[in-house]
Amino acid sequence: MSQFTFDTIGLIHSPYKEKFAIPRQPGLIEDGGGELELIAPYNQPEAVRGLEEFSHLWIVFVFHQTMEGGWRPTVRPPRLGGNARMGVFATRSTFRPNPIGMSLVELKSVETKGGKVILKLGSLDLVDGTPIIDIKPYLPFAESQPQARGGFAQDAPLADMPVSFSEVAQRQIGQHQQRYPHLQRFIQQVLAQDPRPAYRKGESEDRIYAVHLLDFNVRWQVKNGITEVIDLNSV
Ligand code: SAM
User: Distance, CA 159 to ligand 1 centroid (Å)?
Assistant: First the structure.
C-alpha cells in the first residue's frame, strides 16, 4: 500500500482570509482565534466526548492553497531571510511531498448545539476554509519537551515592527469596537511580524500593502521603519 485517501472531517473558520500575513505558527499572537467545525458524518457529539478536558489539541490539516505547487527537496525558510536552503523535512514549509500540516492550538470550548459540533480555538496559523483531516489531544506527559533543541527555529520569530494607526484607521476601528473589541491589538500584532516578503524589505517605501483580515481590507505602508495602518474597509 503506498497511496491513501483521507476524508476532510472539518473546516477551519479563521480571521485570516488569505495566506499573506498569517503567523507562521499558532500561538504567536494573542488574538487570531477561530473555530473548527466538524462536517457530516463526523459532526457527532460522541466523536468529541471527553475532548473538553484537554486544554490543547493537535489539528492535522491539508495545505490546500499551496498543494498544487508540489515540492522540492530543499526550501528557503523565511526565517533565514529567504537565502539559505534547508531540507524540506527540516522545515515547516507548506510545499511538502504530502501537503499536510499540524498545529498545536488551544481548545477554548466544545460546542455541540443545533446539530453542529464546533471547537472554539485560540490563536491560529491557518487560512479560513482549511480542511482538517484529524484532531488529537495534546499529551503534555509525552509531548512537552522543554529541553528540546529547535535548530534554526530555536527562538520565536521577532515581532517587533513598530505599528501606528492613521486617524482614519483609528476612527474605523472605533466603529467596530462592539463586534471586535480587540481589533486594533489584532491588526497591530499581525503587522508587528512584518509580513512583507524578504525581497521587498529593502525596497522603496511607497508601496501600499493590503491584507484581508476578518471582514476588512487592511492597508498599510512602511515609512522610516514604521508600519502605518492607512485604513481598513469592510469587504
Ligand atoms: N503549524 C503548521 C505546521 O507546522 O505544519 C503550519 C505551519 S506553516 C509555516 C503556516 C503558514 O502556512 C501560514 O503562515 C500560512 O502562510 C500558510 N497556510 C495556512 N493555511 C494554509 C492552507 N490551508 N494552505 C496553504 N498554506 C496555508
Answer: 18
